[in-house]
Amino acid sequence: MPRRFLACAPALLRVLGAVAIGTAVSGCGGAGIEGTAVAAEDWGLPTTSGVPTPPRPPNPGAATDTARIGAGSPVDPETYHDAKETDSSPAAPTIGFHFTTPSGNIRCSTPKEPTVLLCEVTDHAYPPAAKPADAKEPCQWFPDYAMLTDEGVAAGVCLPRPLVTRGSRVLPYGSSIRMGDFGCLSTEGGLLCANEVSGHGYQLSREALRTF
What we know:
Number of strands: 15
Radius of gyration: 16 Å
Largest sheet: 6 strands, mixed
Number of domains: 1
Helix content: 10-25%
Number of helices: 2
């Protein structure tokens, strides 16, 4: 994969001028998640036509979740740059960070400057996020994406192309990875990630999408 693979993503989205993402969610299960448009910037969240969602305070239990991540066995994040653009393409270095859970069910990616964390849950029991009515075209809706920024969490993303890569390195159970302000812990019960500055985060699994 050429190194420009992820470098071109911010430019694509700036040209597009908008990205719609799912409503910020809280609690467990992710049931009833509806799509909406919220404001932000760059490959994570360029400005949309919708009403901006103000930053939310993290849930009271956020400190416990971030402490769990910090207690994990740390890996060297610089060994998590290789990924595939497609399932059939060869793995090659990129400018972002990418990893996969041991089950292969959850994959995550960041841009070069890790201001946004995108994770895709391939198989899950909770309802997929609905595409927002005000999504601007061209729009490919990714209902299985979960997005984390310093402002909070959203489910479902409208993008011109997939941004979560394939074939990334496995983050072993019990291991944690830090990417800028983001930290993630791989567990047998799912993937726990948080923005360690704001305290916002999510726990992803087949059974539920829990946010804080």
